[in-house]
Amino acid sequence: MNSYIDHALLINQSYHHWTGKYLISTVAPDVLEKLNTSNFAVVSHGLESPPIFNYGNLLALQVFEYSIEEFIRLPSRESAKSAHRDERAMMFEKLAISGYDDSYSGVRVTSSGREFVMENAEVWTLVDPMGRVHGHAAKFSDWHYL
Question: How far is CA 82 from CA 62, 63, 71, 87, 109, in A?
């Protein structure tokens, strides 16, 4: 199995771990295609310091205005202007305790510098079946450009 399919499975299974539901109700290898073309945006980053985005589905790439090649080199903190990074840091502190939040809202910035607000986003810790943490993911379908 390739690493993209494995990562899509990790995103889907981690979401199930925290919510009892699956983002995509299918199995490998279809989970990657279905996640890529879903009607909600999904992004994830790893555990590097600073964390780097390692996935964005087609809708997320459209919203953030990046190609996949550009996006997976972007430190995730750079998706928020410095004035909005405190709210993002508080969200990660909450995730360290609970692993999941279904009510995150925040301002993000596109590659061209346009700001947008994502509301009612779900964010969760990526955790494998052995309990090892691999990063974080977010899902949002409610956003508007400022």
Answer: 22, 19, 18, 10, 10
